[in-house]
Every structure is written in structure tokens, then in C-alpha cells.
Amino acid sequence: MKYFKLILSSIALLISSQIFAQQVLKGVVLEKATGEGLPGVSVVVKGTTKGTSSDFEGNFQLENIQSGDVIVFSSVGLLTKEVTISNNFQLTITLENDAQQLDEVVLVGYGSTTKKDATGSVESITEKDFTKGNIVTPENLLSGRVAGVNITTSGAPGSGSEIRIRGGSSLSASNAPLIVIDGLPIDNNGTTGSRGVLANINPNDIASFSVLKDASATAIYGSRASNGVIIITTKKGKANFSFNYDVQYTFGEIRDRVEVFGSDAFRAIIAEQRPDDVGMLGSANTNWQDEVLQESVSSMHNLSLRGTILNAVPFRLSAGFTDQEGNILTSNFERNNASLSLSPSLFDDHLKVNANINRVHESSRFADAGQLGAAMRYDPTQPVYDANSRFGGFYQHTTNSNGTTIVLNGTTNPVANLLQRSNYGRASRTYGNVQLDYNFTFYQS
User: Fold this and answer.
1) What is the DSSP string of 56-102?
2) 3-class SS at 333?
């Protein structure tokens, strides 16, 4: 009986020690800078799903906590902290702001600020976040990267894109955002002969974008910014010399085709539905979609030299050569550009200078995209070329009496319409600016 009581006492002691080892953890989470309670902080036992959140005053409570447990405190914009529980089950935790996120510099038009100080809706995209791939015009670096920014491209080589920030706001006026390059507002209407204002800019020269989304941008740029602002910052010089050469070749092909009647099926339908017109059919078997579409080869060459001259003037000199073929016959885009950036700091960094100059020459041949529709309707029994044709060697439907052209199904030979149409555009543009920033030390408080 004596041994039985001893065993029962030992079991009770073990049970009670296990019960008392698991205690209630209480505490408060404070912001280090202000000493105020932080609501919504995640308080979780590391390696488990057991946890809670701090209340509006920063207080929290966790049950069944043992000595040796590791508690993780985390919240957006704050540095995560881990605390190992010893014999103290009443905690006071202080969390610091994550300076790496809050101190990220964004441009807001009148200068630069940080995310924590920005009062409007601003989003900054740097080079590491850019969209990768065959990027010919800079707006495509932003595709899918900024919430509320929609970019629609026609698909033509070097074509300008339709950019909408938070949708359109007008039925008749322009809904395009204002473009600002290194502090210089650029007319978004483009230049005659150019595919668009952004087609003048080499994407390889861009360091970052800042997108101003809300109406506060009008306080900086006026009514031109009512549809938002896209601020483009180009790359600058650096202390050490470096030379970069980047080359990219791209091959493209449109493989899908719209299913239409082939030549044999077309002849059968005409014989059944319009037997009097059978004599107008030919003996060829032409897939007009294959004829108006082509395999494309594009190339981009970019050279840049960065460093410091005169031991005080950081510079960047770049040149780019772009040749992009479109997948529609005759469609082509060429751009040659050069840029120079100087960014010295003088008088013990009291005077900061940013000077930029850019020169671009753009050459385009515009193809009529409407000929894709014509290719789906034109007679597949006729050839592309006719040695006896009066129309530059291209086949065209004509009457038997006077040889005039007959328009069938609203179309004529789509290949002839593309090759015999010379629609060229050439544009040259020079833009740049100089910014001076002087720090008056005697005016500092």
C-alpha cells in the first residue's frame, strides 16, 4: 500500500508539473519610434500555426506556452522580431520600421521623396522589376507591373501603346497620361512620321519609372496631369569606368490562321451557287493569309560607356540601334539614338548638376493591317502574280470588255496593296534639359 501511494504521488507530481509548465503569455507590442501600441501585429509560435494578433492598443495573449518556445512578431512595414521564452511570461516588445521599404526613393515631380512621406498614390518601378523579353518601346517595361495601369499595344513594330491609368475620364478629350523624362514634360501627341513619343526612347537607357496615379499630380503639372503622370528617370554615370555592349536577335512568326475555304471548296460553292461565274475562277491554289504574313527577324544593339571625367564629372554615353520587322508584309521599324548624361556635384556637394541630351532618328514603313481581312476574303483560285497583268505584274480581277479592275467581296489583291503602297514615316528629335540644385547652407535650421 505504501508503494502504491508513492506511485500515485509521482504521477500526480508529473501531471501538475506538465500543467504548470504551460502558461499564458501576455504582453504588449510598441512602435520603437513613438512608444505607441501597434495593432494587428502577428504573434505566432515559430514552427506552428498557433498564434494571435495584437489588439488596437498593441496587447496580446497566447495560451499554452512553454519555456523554450520561440515567438515571432511580424507586421507589414516593420522588422520581424523573434523572442525565446524563458521564465518570463509577461513581455513588452518594440518593433522598428523597415527602413529598406519605407526609405525607397520615389519621384513626385517637384523632387524626390520616400514611400513613407509620399502623400499621393505613387508607385516606383526599378530596373530589377522591369518586364523582360523583346522590349522595343519603354512602356512595355511596365506591362503587368503596376496596379491600375493598363497598356494596350497594336502589335505593329515600334508602335505606340495606349496607356490608361485607372481607366479613362473623358469621352472626347485625351485620356493619355503625361510623360516626363528626367524632369522634362514631353508632348504625348508625338511627332509627325513617328509611331509615338515613347518610340523615341531607348528602353536600355531607363533606370526607373514613377507612376503618379491620383489627381494630386495636377498640383504639380497642371491639367496635363489629370490622367496621371509617368516619370521616367534615365541611367546616370558612376565612379568606375565600364563599357557594356548588349545585342539581341528576335525571330517571330504568326502560326495561327483563320479557317477559310480552300480553292477546291471555293470552286465547288461557286459552281453550286453561282454557276454563271465559274469562268471567272482560276486554277491556282493560293493561301492569301500565308502571302500577307511573313517571318520576322529583329535586332537590337546597345552600347554604353559610364565613368568619371576630370575626376569630378560622372557621365554616361550610350548609343542604340534597333531594327524590327513586323509580321505583316512590308511592316518595319528602325530607330537610331544617342544620349549623353552628366551629373557632377560641385562646391563640396552644395551644387548638383544633371544635364541630359538625347538625339533620335526614327524610320518606319507602315503596313495596312486591313489587308489581313482582305486576305481572308480574296479569291483563293487566283495567283498572286500574273506576267500579263497591267498592274505591276500582280493579278487583279478585270472585266473582259475594257480591262478595268473588279472589286470582289470588297477587296483587291492584298499582296499588291501592301507591296505597291509606299507609306513611310521619318522623324528626328532632339530633347534634353539641365537641372541645377544648390544647397544654401546658411539657410538650414
Assistant:
1) TTSEEEEEEE-TT-EEEEE-TTB--EEEE-SS--EEEEEE-B-HHHH
2) strand
In DSSP terms, 203 is beta-bridged to: none
Q: Is the pLDDT of residue 392 over 70?
A: yes
Q: Read off the pLDDT of residues 98-123 as tens digits, 9 standing for 90 and up.
A: 655 545 555 555 455 545 444 456 77
Q: What angle do CA 190, 195, 200 make, to 5 degrees?
A: 70
pTM: 0.67
* Domain residue extents for the chain: 21-97, 102-234, 242-443
Q: For residue 435, what are the β-bridge partners? A: 354
CA dist., res. 394 & res. 390, Å (int):
8
CA 82 to chain centre: 37
Q: Which residues contact 288 (CB under 8 A, 6 or more apart)?
A: 374, 375, 376, 378, 380, 414, 415
For residues 232 and 315, what is the distance between their CA atoms, to the nearest angstrom?
18
The four Cα atoms 413, 414, 415, 419 give a dihedral, to 10 degrees, of: 110
H/E segment holding residue 165: strand 161-165
CB atoms within 10 A of CB 89: 15
Q: What local confidence, expressed as pLDDT, does residue 119 receive? A: 47
Q: Hey, how many other C-beta atoms are within 10 angstroms of the C-beta on 394?
A: 18
CATH superfamily of 21-97: Carboxypeptidase-like, regulatory domain (2.60.40.1120)
* 81-103 mean pLDDT: 80
3-state secondary structure of 2: helix
Using DSSP, state whether 3 is helix, strand or coil.
Answer: helix
| Residue carrying C-alpha cell 522595343 | 136
- For the chain, give the percent of residues with pLDDT over 70: 82
Pairing between strand 59-65 and 70-74?
Answer: unpaired
In CATH, what class is 102-234? mainly beta
Q: Residue written as cell 498640383? A: 219
Considering Cα of 134, then 139, then 141, then 144, what sign does the dihedral take?
Answer: negative
Distant-in-sequence, close-in-space partners of 20: CB < 8 Å, separation ≥ 6: none
Per residue in 326-382, pLDDT (tens digit) is 999 999 999 999 999 998 888 877 888 889 999 999 999 999 989 999 999 999 999
Local confidence band at 191 (pLDDT 50, 70, 90 cut-offs)? low
**Using DSSP, how many helices (H) and how many strands (E) does the chain show?**
7, 23
At 238, phi and psi to the nearest 5?
Answer: -145, 175
